[in-house]
Amino acid sequence: MAWIDKMKQFFTIYSILLSLLLFSCERNKNPGADSDLKIAVIPKGTTHEFWKMGEAGAKKAGKELGIEIIWKGPQKESDRAGQIKVVENFITQGVNGIALAPLDDKALVRPVSEAKSAGIKVAVWDSGLDESAGDSVISNVMTDNYAAGQACGKRLAKLMNNSGKVLMLRHEVNHDSTTNREEGFLDGIKKTAPNIQFLSIDQRGGVSIDEAMKVSENLLNQFGDSVQGIFTPNESTTQGMLRALDQAGLSGKVPFVGFDTNEALIKALKEKKIAALAVQDPFKMGYIAVKNIVSSIKEQPFEENVDTGAVLLDLENLESEEVQKLINPTDK
Fold this sequence. Notes:
By secondary structure, the chain is α/β, with parallel strands linked by helices. Helices cover 48% and strands 14% of the residues. The protein has helices at residues 2-29, 49-65, 80-93, 109-117, 145-159, 176-192, 209-223, 235-248, 263-270, 282-297, 321-327; strands at residues 38-42, 68-71, 97-100, 121-125, 139-142, 165-168, 197-200, 229-231, 256-259, 276-279, 305-307, 311-313. The strands form 2 sheets. The chain has a 6-stranded parallel sheet with strand order 2-1-3-4-5-11, sandwiched between helices. It has a 6-stranded mixed sheet with strand order 7-6-8-9-10-12, with helices on both faces. Strand 6, helix 6 (176-192) and strand 7 form a beta-alpha-beta unit. Helix 2 packs parallel to helix 10 (282-297) and helix 5 crosses helix 6 (176-192). The longest helix has 28 residues, at 2-29.
C-alpha cells in the first residue's frame, strides 16, 4: 500500500510539473495572452497639454488590457537625437511594442525599421513617417491633418468675409502633422477665397511658446497694421501668437484661428481673443495606438489607419457634449 501511495504522489507531482511546462510553452507561443507585455509610448515632447492627454489615453488602454505602459519622451519637440535615443533604448530593453509620435518624419525611419527587425510592433500616432518606412509601422493613428487645416482655412476666410490679408505662423520642419495642417490651411483659403492675400506664410515659431512668441512679435511689428486674419497650427504657436497679440494690443481685433487647446487657450476663446480652435483627440490617439499594438501582437484584427477626428471649437459649441469629451478626456 505504501508503494501505491508513493506512485500516486509521483504521478500527481509529475502531472503538476507537466501542466506548468505546457502553460509556459503556451505563453511563449502567444506572448500577447499574458500580462507581461510592455508597451513604450513616446511623445514628441512632454511639456504641452496635448501630450499629457495622449499619455492618459495610453494608460487607460494599458489598464484595460492589464499590460505595462512605459511613458518616455524628449522634453523639447526639437530634440530629434533625444527621441531617437529613447526609441533605441526601448529596442535594447526588448519591449513588445512602441507607440511613437515621431517628431521628424524622416529621422525616425531608421530606428523604427530597427525596431521592426527586433520583432517590436510599432504604431505611430499624431504624426506619420516618410513612405520610406515601408511596412515598419503596423498602424497610423492621427487626425486627418490636411482636412483639419482646410477647415481652419475655410473658417478664417468666412470670418474675414472672404477678403483681406492673412498671415500664418508655421511650426517646425519635418513635423508631418503640422506641415499637413499648414498646407491644408493654404488650400482651404485659396479654394474658398482666392482674393485673400498672404502677408507671411514661411516663418516658423519653433517648438516652444517663448520661441513662437518672439517670432510672432516680429511678424506683428512688420504686418500689424495690415493683418486681417491669423492662423497657427499647434498648441505652442497658438499660445505664442496669443501672447504677442496681447502685447501688441491686437487681441480680439483680428480674426484668429488656432490649433489645439489648454486652459489658457480656452480662456482666450471665451474672452473672444481667439475666434476658433481646431480640437484634436490625443486621448483617443494614445488609447487606440496601444490597443492596435496589442491586437497585432495577438494576431487579432485591427484598423491600420485610424482618423481620430478634429472639431472646430468656438463659443457656439464650447459647451456641447462632443467638445466637452475632447477637452476633458479623463471623463471617457
